[in-house]
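Cont'd.
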Amino acid sequence: MVWQRSRIRLDADNRAFWTGGAQGHLNIARCDDCGGFIHPPRAICRHCQSENVAPCAVSGRAVIDSYTINHQKWAPDMEVPFVIARVRLDDAPDVFLTTNIVGCPIESVDIGDRVRVVFEEQDGIWYPLFEKAA
Amino acid sequence: MAREAYITGIGMSEVGVRLTRSPLGLTLDAIREAAADAGLTLGQIDGVSTYPGKMPSFLGFSPVGVDEVIEVCGLRTRWHTGAAEATAQLGAIIDAAAAVRSGQARHVICFRTVYEAAALARPEEFPALERRKDVTGNSQWVSPFGAFSAACWTAQFATRHMKLYGMTREQLAQVALNDHRNAALNPRAIVRQPLTMESYMAARMISTPFCLYDCDRFTDASTVVIVSAGDALDEVRAAPVRIAASAGSVERYSWDQAEWASAYPTGRDLWKNTDYTAADVDTVQLYDGFAFQPITWLEGLGFCEVGEGHRFIEGGTRIALDGELPMNTGGGQLGWGRLHGFGYAYESVVQLRGQGGARQIKGDPRVAVATSGGGPMAAALLLARD
């Protein structure tokens, strides 16, 4: 896929998520008081309302919760078909990420597949994509 | 005894694709029709409610605000709201019901105006939503991955139903087939012809398992429902339909963090404040912006078990006009057009009054369910002629 991905407006809440890939990190906001993960990231914990929240680098291992093979060109430069998936993170099991599954034939993707994060950088944003784990 | 709220008037503009009449003009058409239907003058209207309110960044999606309706209709209102953060589209009607029950208004115009087809054709007047620059809010979690459309988000819930419960495309197809069959009997629907299973199976894919016929299409229209207080019924002419119960909920304020569609908790909640049960319902008008959504509503409302919705509609006879639970009798959004939620309330009233003409269901229908929303936010109305 080579289309121009949506350019994110970075702010205090989302910067660690969208730039962590530069260090190879998939950063998910985590509460230092209750240990819960907060996604989408915010400065206040959604589990205990603590403000003691910081980015936490998780392993990047995940499992495919569901997926769709997108055939529609929503933008002129979009190369179709491709796989859009929702993955459940191993280390933060109540957090889902919408992503693309890359590096494999689209028809080989299924629910329950083990995947791991790979980053694609465009203009300083590090988009977390996932590929099948060996 | 608690005060009651009733739907006393319904109206709709011309429904079409790339209409040239202005969105405010369409809204006025629908308001006039609803007021005449109720037997009310505009001078008797003292409340306005809409979903979601005017959206300057996305005018095709919502081109008209409460302020313009108050101005052009010369209304003297005592209560109004634009329910952008309400529990899905029908939340605007639920809010109006609360307003009349508490005495804040007597007759409330509730409207939903859509102009997505015309806006696409006239981008100089109605700029398209910018999806790829300066993305913020919930869009940032989906659009970078090409998931620009709710089709891609909803499709993943449907894929999971196929994997977990064995739903097939032939079963899913019954939603579109039923919608097309009913729309062909509805003079206001944009679809004029029934659809065959062969055409359905041959249609191009949008986002698996959704093909072209599983997705509603951009439509230009305005739909109006007038909600009146129980102690103001002597001022109206039409047979009132009582808002017997309502429910609305949000799983998570996010399409991809919600593990299940909000139709499940909302469907369960609808029965908590009423003596009616699912067995009393004569017809269901279930949100179907995408064909999978009515399946979640049938399961959530308790017409069948979770994971059984696709078998409930299999073959299409049960949900047909002459079936045991006629569904989306006006054609739903796949057949009537993307009226965006309000069409389900409108059609419920048509059926409960016996005004459906060629699409009127048999017998003496008294109870209907109308729903809106198909993802993490949902709202439902139980409507009764009692």
